[in-house]
Amino acid sequence: MTPRVLFLCIVGLDAAHTATAILLHRVPGGHDGFQYFTLQYFFLNNAIQAHEVAQWIPYMTQGTVGSPWYGIQGSFLQAVLLQLPWLASGANLLSSYHVAMFVDEMILLTGTWLVARRFFDLPTTFFVSISVVASAVWLEQPYFNFRLYYAVPLVLELGHRFLETGRWRWAFVACNLLALQTIGNLPYVIPLTSFVVFVYFALYTAMNRTLVWNRLALLIWDRGAVAALAFAALSLAAAYLCVTLGTDQLVNYNVGRSPSGTTSLSYFLSYGRFTDLTKWNDVVLRMSPAMDNTLYAGMLLGPLLFAGLIAVDRRRAHLVLTAAVVLLFTLSTPVSRLVYYAWPGMWYFRHIGLVSSLVKVLLCFVAGIGFEYLFRSASSTKFATVRTVAILGATWLAAGIWYAIHTASSPAAIDRYVSAINVDQAARALYTFDPIEIARRLRHGAAWASVGAMIVAAAPLLLTSRRFASAGMRNTALCAVLAFVVIDLYQFKFGYLLDRSDGIGAEQQFVVESSPMPYPRRRVLNLSESMAEAHSRLAATAAFNHLLQLQFEGRGKSGSQYWTSNAFWFIDEVSATFQADSWLAPLDRFARMFRAGIGVDFPVERDTAAKLAGLRADKIRFFAHAYSITSPTELAAVLTDASYKGDLLFVTPPPATGDQAVSAWSFQQPLSIDDSLQLQYRVERFDANNLVVVVSNSESTPVWMFYSEVWHPWWRATVNGASAPVYRANGAYKAIRIEPGENLVHFHFHSGLLTALTTLGAVNAGCWLIAVAVMMPWYGVERGLSRLS
């Protein structure tokens, strides 16, 4: 078969997987996967409805800056759709999510294929590529199970092209892709992926010193080199800015992180655990003990690794060494400690155990070495080597079969299996709490391992027989093994899709269709209150989301739920029912006035705080006067005074406003007085970045409009088209002055720099989609690819 046919086979299989997810309306069941989807829905839905990228998220902890979440929820296709939302208008946004994941899978496939073709023959390239792509599953953990590494192989390919050609443009595009894959990933991924890329090329250089140094010596250091390096640095800086702009106002309460976001060495080495070798039993059992990592990449991976380690040559030794270094990094060894101190930015990283999925990708390349060695012509295959590989591989699988059957047959053994899992309970897969389900899965894994063991055991007879010397027999055996690999991996991938996702029924389809965001006049106390009131989106989600049902029934055992989901349900919660890691600094200071503490926990028991926060009064209120208090200590004393009921407005004027309408507070009125006004208002527009309100001021003098949405320096306002200063009100919120009569008030959250960066990122992502399509081996040859000799 030609490269084009084999490549298209993988494309077709993954397209079938995506089509199944779309046709069956499968949505990630929980944990980070549900967060990723719901955030992507929020941003794309807002782009369709408001025709701009969300920079503010109004439903999270009384409003928060959206830039870090823009980065976390993205993808290459999503970046383009946010700028061209008409492309997704009218579409089911769950379908858009699955298509976007498929597009990024094609980036992984293209990079893996091109790197594999440098070091392997065509059948082995197919084996490596399908092992990597088919084992990429992300239903519950898209970041570490897929997005962590999906662009890394293509970055490596571009680095090779730079070394081969000496053209600086390849260095630029490699760095550009490394930066751009941060959009749609966790912000602290760049230190990790850049480290892996560095280790790969450092070891490649060490194993191919003469070749690499000769090419480096021919590099031309001219204006093109300076420009390429400068634009590469700008790409990294732009990606960093895109996910951090405006976050100086955030107060983070991530477990194990300092306020600056760094983590200590002890947390770096142990956070989330999963740093022991026992997690790799997934390679045989097809059953990960955690939702966060799935390391299965085919039943033949283990035996072929033994062959790869035996058959490795100097030209491909860097593949083995890179896998070994990154594996040691994930096991909390001295290598982990060294990297923590030596590699820039690594002190922001903390999930070293979850990097195992990237090790899995590297091990697929190592297994490729063994695969190619075994299927060479019979004359070059030594019987002793094949026999050794068969013995080691069969023993490996037999041990797994025995362990699976022994554990499945004994409740006590299942208890020992569960108790030995070195994973936090919240991160365990749901089935680890069900002994019957564990037993079923173990038997299922044992059945597949038995088939794999028979194939491995038959290898010495098949690969060393005289019949195998013929090309026809060799090709038949090769096709049979590859067919088993394909069936094995895609049965696993399709099964994972159905197991780790929920199907949305016809009655709940509206929650994944584009919908205008409603303006909530008041906030709710918690999600249980919303469930009791039969909030439509939350109730519909609970109808199909199994983990969410367990949470509300008080039986939730696994999988984190995050406060970001409020943006999907359109629920404006005063605090956070589910896990919340940050809120804005003004709100943090406001909350601490009423109750000391650490973490995202609003003092709802204090009537004054609840009233100002829009829980016990409308978020939009009006006052006859505003009084200036600039001292935080004095403001705290006034707001927490027992006689103050939240009915006087205290503001901090913006710098250099020169506004004489605000009097300095000197106890002109009793704190208990009610200075609020009952004015008629109508919300004309509400979306992520905008609130447009028509207010009828029946007073004969100017009055003050208070808006209980957290203050941030990017907020701007106009009244009847004229710019109006935005005051910080009651320490945490906003207020503006409006004139008598009809007033059209427009609050707008906007950063021109962030708008420019998201637009630039979309253009960049669009160019990459075209570039990847061009680099795919559509025409039967890998154009522009110079294989090493």
Summarize the structure.
By secondary structure, the chain is an alpha+beta fold. It has 30 helices and 19 strands. The protein folds into 3 domains: 3-284 and 293-381 and 464-502 and 757-775, no CATH class; 506-573, no CATH class; 607-686 and 690-749, no CATH class.
Explain this structure.
52% of the residues lie in helices and 10% in strands. With 789 residues, the protein is α+β, with helices and mostly antiparallel strands. It has three domains: 3-284 and 293-381 and 464-502 and 757-775, no CATH class; 506-573, no CATH class; 607-686 and 690-749, no CATH class. The strands form five sheets. The protein has an eight-stranded mixed sheet, with no helix packed on it. The chain has a five-stranded antiparallel sheet with strand order 12-13-19-15-16, with no helix packed on it. Helix 2 runs parallel beside helix 4 (76-83), helix 6 packs antiparallel against helix 18 (356-374) and helix 21 runs antiparallel to helix 22 (471-499). The two termini are 23 Å apart.
